[in-house]
Amino acid sequence: FRCTSAFIIRELKIWIQFSLVDRFIYYFIICLLKKNKGGYIYMSSQVVVGTQWGDEGKGKIVDVLAEKADLIVRFQGGDNAGHTVVVNGKKHVLHLLPSGVLHEDATCIIGPGVVCNPFVLLEEMDTLKKGGLSTDHILISDRAQMLMPYHKVQDALEESANGNKIGTTKRGIGPCYADKYARTGIRFHEFVNFETFKERLKECVTFKNKLFTAVYGAEPMDYDKMVADFAAIHDRIVPMIKETTHLVNDALDQDKRVLFEGAQAAMLDINYGTYPYVTSSSPTSAGVTVGAGVAPSRIKTVCGVVKAYSTRVGEGPFVTELLDEQGEWIRTHGGEYGATTGRPRRCGWLDLLVVKHANMMSGLTDIVITKIDVLTGLEKIKACVGYEIDGKVYDYIPSDQEDVARAKPVYKEFDGWTEDISQMSKYDQLPENAKAYLRFIEEFTGVRISMVSVGPDRVNNIYIHDID
Ligand code: GDP
Ligand code: IMO
Ligand code: MG
């Protein structure tokens, strides 16, 4: 074992709770089990992922779990994310910064798998500073991709030209990832030396301008203005650029608590989501390994955030969508309007095939249910347990989106409740009908529900099991 101060404090706490004999047996068994696995007995690496189409309340849950974290790492996506965290009634909307940023003792890392627009990042940091919060604990991986002004322009041009519109957030995410995989992207370490950066920028802008003018018939971008804009932020960005992969792995070696924060969600995954109506990254637990630079064996807990109903922003099939007043009711009661674009979110019943799919991709160890308070007052609540396509019932999601678009949901119906649950803090206080709904989600997915969020504020939670 490593004898760090974090290790000693945690041990002391555990020793107080259990008898000496119990602990001895526990050590003996654990040592035997872990003998060949590098001995990371106390390693704490938690992953938080969305299990639907995003906006499940990941930001809130990360903020809650971050209280105990030493490091918080974003591993994919960019400022397409919109994570709302409410503390003492004050709302913070974060796009690029990890949602754990409000905990100033933890280091916040924008990881190698992120596409980071440095201008948006600084704007977000300025907003926090104006609110009296520190931003000294934020680092950017030197391997992260720089999301450039031309990526945003390209995103908008592709959306307006594309017959098969995706309904992107127009933040430049797709074009930036496309350049990354075409190996023409610019990484943050290239920004450190401004003279060589200018040369790289020249190459890229020249190429993009050919594309914009010749293919899209759009205006070329002004290279000199772009250089001036980047020069103005150089001194603020460069001190934040660090080699973060060793930092994260060293922290795990030292038994520190590392929290990996997912943006977007399973159904927006580039490989396993509702392609092509997806984002351009992997928002599953697998994304952590490539996006943060840690081995799969080092992930301990994967916490899937499940909203008690479904929402989706942008185009693409949505089997349980409610296009009637019921959907409008959920939108109004749940405040379902995009944090990034302000678009009304499409609303529908909980789709448990979707959650099951997310579990298969991410290997969830825990589920956190959010926004169940929003369903209070409904006479009946439904959850989808199968898709009927051309007379056949599927218990999984087919890959062909045309099949999914034709699918009719097979529902299980639950009785609702009328009690205000938003101030409840114990599972036993919940109405029986709410408990029945939760129990069914556990049974269907085979994953335990460890926490239930009953309101937007940091404190509105029912804790059931430790997420460790
Ligand atoms: P994220 O993208 O997954 O972080 O989710 P968003 O922040 O985009 O959307 C979730 C919204 O629901 C935010 O406005 C949160 O403040 C709010 N929220 C989170 N959890 C709860 C909850 O349990 N109940 C209610 N009523 N609101 C919640
Ligand atoms: P958070 O982290 C909901 C959706 C967009 C669009 C598709 C592709 O707040 O849950 P992109 O701009 O990524 O190329 O858009 O993905 N989308 C999200 N929907 N929440 C998000 O993030 C999203 N990020 C992207 O609406 O349909
Ligand atoms: Mg969101």
Report the C-alpha radius of gyration, rounded. 23 Å
Largest sheet report: 10 strands, mixed
CA(first)-CA(last) distance: 19 Å
Uncertain regions: pLDDT < 50 for 5+ in a row? 35-41
Structural class: alpha/beta
The proportion of residues forming helix, as a percent range, comes to: 25-40%
Summed up, the helix count is: 14
Strand content: 15-25%
Strand line-up of the largest beta sheet: 9-7-5-2-10-1-11-15-19-20
The strand count comes to: 20
Q: What is bound: which ligands?
A: guanosine-5'-diphosphate, 6-O-phosphoryl inosine monophosphate, magnesium ion
- Mass-distribution shape: globular
Oligomer: single chain
Mean pLDDT across the residues is 93
Explain how this protein is built.
Helices cover 36% and strands 19% of the residues. The longest helix is centred in the middle third of the chain and has 22 residues, at 194-215. The protein has helices at 5-17, 20-34, 58-65, 118-130, 149-161, 173-181, 194-215, 223-237, 244-253, 285-292, 325-334, 352-362, 401-406, 432-445, and strands spanning 44-50, 71-74, 83-87, 90-94, 107-110, 115-116, 138-141, 145-146, 241-242, 257-261, 301-307, 310-312, 346-348, 350-351, 366-370, 380-389, 392-394, 408-415, 449-453, 461-463. A ten-stranded mixed β-sheet has the order 9-7-5-2-10-1-11-15-19-20, sandwiched between helices. Strands 14, 16, 17 and 18 form a four-stranded mixed β-sheet that branches. The chain has a two-stranded antiparallel ribbon with strand order 3-4. The chain is globular. Mean pLDDT is 93; it is low at 35-41. The chain has 468 residues and is an alpha/beta fold. Bound molecules: guanosine-5'-diphosphate (GDP), 6-O-phosphoryl inosine monophosphate and magnesium ion. Guanosine-5'-diphosphate binds at residues 50, 54-60, 82-84, 86, 335, 339, 370-371, 373-374, 453-456.
